[in-house]
Amino acid sequence: MSHTTTPTIVPRRARLGRRAAAALLGAAALTGLTTVTAPTAGAATWDHTYSGKGVTVYVKERGDIIKVCDTSKNGHSAWVAVMDISNNIDHYKLKASGGKGTCATHRASEGGRYDLAEYSRIALNYEGAGGNGSYYVSYVNDH
């Protein structure tokens, strides 16, 4: 037994309406997808990211933004010491002391010791394991 189907005849106007609706739904879905995947407003794009046991340090050179985050539930705070080794200056120590998932940030707009010299070599000594190994890195602050 063979089956044949009779095509449904849809008036031209209805077909255009369905196409327009499909296009609008597709555009809305794409817009929704873009909104979901786009970075949030004000999110920093980090120039440098350094990680160690229990700690991650983020650096944005423009604005001298330094952020330290505690990444381990180990009972120890994460910290970073910021130094200008070109000019032999110990700037500050920053500590994320609220446990895993907490962060602390300083930036040049706070003035004084948080405003790092341009074209200087900035050193970061950071740790997150309670004295069980610290890390040392440096970069040239050229943005």
List keywords for this structure.
globular, four-stranded antiparallel sheet, 8 strands, 143 residues, single chain, alpha+beta
Q: Rg, please?
A: 27 Å
Helix share, percent: 10-25%
Note poorly predicted spans. 1-16, 20-42
Portion in strands: 25-35%
What oligomeric state is this?
Answer: single chain
Mean pLDDT: 79
Helix/sheet category: alpha+beta
**Main beta-sheet strand count, sense and barrel state:** 4 strands, antiparallel
Could you give the count of β-strands?
A: 8
Strand order of the largest sheet: 1-2-3-6
Element order, helices and strands? HEEEEEEEE
Envelope shape = globular
Secondary structure tally, helices:
1
Question: What order do the helices and strands come in, and which of them pair?
Answer:
Elements: H1 12-37, E1 48-52, E2 55-60, E3 65-70, E4 78-84, E5 89-96, E6 103-106, E7 121-127, E8 135-140
Antiparallel strand pairs: 1-2, 2-3, 3-6, 4-5, 4-7, 7-8
Could you characterize what this model shows?
The strands form 2 sheets. Strands 1-2-3-6 form a 4-stranded antiparallel beta sheet, with no helix packed on it. The protein has 1 helix and 8 strands, in the order αββββββββ. The model is unreliable at 1-16 and 20-42 (pLDDT under 50). With 143 residues, it is α+β, with helices and mostly antiparallel strands. The protein has one helix at 12-37; strands at residues 48-52, 55-60, 65-70, 78-84, 89-96, 103-106, 121-127, 135-140. It is globular and about 35 Å long.
